[in-house]
Specification:
By secondary structure, the chain is an alpha/beta fold. It has 14 helices and eleven strands. The protein has a five-stranded mixed beta sheet with strand order 2-1-3-10-4. The chain has a three-stranded mixed beta sheet with strand order 5-9-11, with no helix packed on it. Bound molecules: calcium ion (CA). Calcium ion is lined by residues 166, 224-226, 250. Calcium ion binds next to loops.
Length: 371
């Protein structure tokens, strides 16, 4: 499989060289090797954990591919494959790491069985919001640490989407105390899942495309997915009655694009930058999209579909926060890089939280009080 890919890659590279010359002659190196490389065309494949064209999450890979193709004037063409088209939804990390495909789009917490510490690069229960995640990643050293971690797997990571604060999820019975979580089988990935498990529930990681049927057939009793915009599109209101908030488990998850390191290194510098910038622009666009669409979707869920929106009781949230702090503190092993990532996250959070008390939080509270 891998050999087949490599020889195909070489063939495509050779084709690219031919295209670059235009006259069907391969130029010699002395005849401007740099020019040849700059004009070389690349055809890549991107696999994703999302169903094809899913609103929000699922459009990010297409958007990145379109942007890269336009900005590179067609020198880098990326074909996007939805979950299970050529690779299973949760097989994206391995496929890109092994170089079977060049790129993938998903979320780092889906690989918690392989790289538990990588969950910090998606989201932490009661952790950083979207704005704060971007600040940590782009300005607080987070992205460099992520790159260092993923280099171990021959991957280059880039932030590639954020949903903002999610909803706590869909339940068919009311949550009044911690007792109501016991024995519930819930689709809840990442660290939120660990916390839920420790609270007495059973946490299950399922890709988005399997949630509806699993809830309908009783394979799971409850689920979280994203927020109104995505949850409405999946029809989750048809299989659950109560819609709980706030999304303590995912306060601002960063989605990732991963690129096979050898493939990335083979690109000329300008194409590398185009890939990074396309991903970064999409990271920002997705947050804007959710911010713009969530409220009208929520209104439709409540007014048209009679969904009951409930807040998780304070004492349940307090207990979940206590468990979360334990779970997160147990995450890093003795590995120095893991400790560095953990400390970077925790220190950044403490600082940003402090200032946000008198800025973001104070402002939003004031605005609501005066409304
Ligand atoms: Ca979620």
């Amino acid at each position: 499989m891998k050999m087949e890919f490599i020889s195909k890659g070489l063939f495509l590279a050779f084709l690219g060289l031919l295209t670059a010359c235009g006259d069907g002659q391969v130029k010699s190196k002395n005849d401007g090797g740099v020019v040849a490389q700059e004009q070389q065309t690349f055809r890549w494949r991107m696999v994703t954990t999302w169903p094809k064209n899913l609103p929000g999450l699922g459009i990010a890979p297409e958007l990145i591919a379109e942007r890269v193709e336009k900005m590179s004037a067609g020198r880098l063409k990326i074909t996007v494959f939805g979950a299970n088209e050529i690779v299973p939804a949760l097989g994206v990390f391995d496929a890109v790491s092994l170089g079977n495909v060049e790129m993938g789009h998903g979320a780092a917490y889906y690989w918690k069985g392989k790289v538990p510490i990588a969950q910090l690069f998606t989201t932490v229960p009661f952790g950083l919001t979207a704005q704060e995640m971007n600040a940590w990643l782009y300005q607080g050293g987070g992205l460099e640490l992520w790159e260092e971690l993923y280099a171990r797997y021959d991957l280059v990571p880039t932030p590639a989407g954020n949903t903002g604060v999610q909803m706590a999820g869909w339940f068919n019975k009311e949550l009044n105390s911690m007792d109501d979580l016991r024995g519930i089988k819930m689709r809840i990935p990442g660290l939120g899942g660990e916390v839920f498990q420790r609270a007495g529930g059973t946490a299950i990681t399922l890709p988005g495309g399997e949630i509806y049927t699993s809830l309908q057939t009783g394979v799971i009793d409850a689920t979280e997915w994203v927020g109104p915009y995505n949850d409405l599109a999946f029809g989750l209101h048809q299989v659950a009655k109560y819609y709980y908030y706030p999304g303590w488990q995912e306060p601002g998850p960063t989605l990732e694009m991963i690129i096979n390191k050898q493939a990335f290194d083979s690109l000329p510098k300008d194409l590398q930058e185009i890939v990074r910038i396309s991903s970064r622009a999409t990271n920002e666009d997705m947050l804007a999209l959710y911010t713009a669409k969530n409220n009208s979707a929520l209104e439709e869920l409540v007014n048209v579909h009679q969904v009951e929106v409930r807040k998780i009781p304070e004492d349940v949230l307090r207990e979940l926060k206590k468990i979360s702090d334990e779970v997160v503190s147990e995450l890093p092993t003795e590995d120095p890089l893991e400790r560095k990532i953990y400390e970077s996250y925790i220190n950044f959070k403490a600082g940003v939280e402090n200032y946000h008390e008198i800025s973001e939080r104070a402002y939003i509270n004031t605005r609501s009080e005066l409304e």
